[in-house]
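Subject: Predicted fold for ParB/RepB/Spo0J family partition protein, 298 residues

User T.R. writes:
Posting the sequence so we have a shared reference for the thread.
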Amino acid sequence: MTSFQRKTGLGKGLSALLDDNETVNATKTGAEVAVAPAVGSISFIKIEDIETNPYQPRTEFDQVALNELSDSIKVQGLIQPITVRKNGDKYQLISGERRFRASKLAGLTEIPAYIRTADNQQMLEMALIENIQRENLNAIEVALSFQQMIDECNLKAEQLGERVGKNRTTVSNYLRLLKLPPVIQASIRDGKISMGHARALISVEETDKQLYIHHEIIDKGLSVRKVEEMVRGINHVVVKPQTTPEPVSFEYQKLQNDLSSKFSTKVKLKVKDNGKGSIEIPFVNSNDLNRILELLDW
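User M.O. replies:
I've generated the structure tokens; pasting them so everyone works from the same file.
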């Protein structure tokens, strides 16, 4: 396959494509005159003139995979052009950030890019759709991207589904992940629990129960089917009605959140004006109590 990297003796197909584009190449009248690449063209653009996409939904790039792609680019060149839009004197990535990063690692100074027109909404949509189609985003990144599109593009779940090729139920399931406690979201993001585990946890209404089951999944490596059985059983567990907690300061709130993460249950701090108070660590059954006691080295 012909490489898009600039080399002596470019493939005829690419050379013809670039030479036939009047907006990309200079008009030859004895001496070539540089002309800025135009929208709709494929051109070689200096890497230093390309800015990353602020609407990129992917937040993590595997360094090992980037290095492997970089090594390939050093040998074969960049085969697939990135996509950019004009942004003042620079260009802004629409899609292809992984290829862009790997090309920089490979030491390229310019890379082929397809130039198109796109507003901020289109930038977000194209970056999201590209990544979803390639299945490079984890479930939380997809959920955050869906929520960002809804907020910034004023879309309803059904409209969003049409844009990204997902049905409304799928979109809603992703969005519901953002209602799970942060510690569970982190486990989904890091691949410690699957989307199937997450869907089962979503159906549990009480946060305390969600955190307990989440701990059991991590601690015992429970299958999705086993978690679904736990959910059906735990939904019948009677928990003490929750009372409205007294407001606590930011410092105590942070401590409360840290303790909740440590014990995988919703810890509550009750602090009076005179500084006295109590710490409440709820549990849903005897096994959960024993787990908490072990954490306390009891």
